[in-house]
Amino acid sequence: MGGTSGALYSIYLSALAQGIAQSNAPKVTLPVFSKAASFALQALGKYTPARVGDRTLVDALDPFVNELSESQNLWKAVEAAREGYDSFVGLTNVVELRKRQR
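RESULT FIELD:
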């Protein structure tokens, strides 16, 4: 973990816990988690300019949260995160390749 990753994780996970606590639900069900995940993503957006395409955890997190909110299907959300991650890895590899070519 480098750069701002630690701070992004901290903000997101703190807001996720807050969203779960605010639900007052006796159990953390998929709908409760989904709503808390959306709350946390919005909170993260208030504290960082990182967006999809910036080669941060947001590249996987944003599609995960959005798909989870829309479908309420954890496996579809995981696949959306994987696709976001794969696009992130591709961007990183291009950047690294260009650095090595110089």
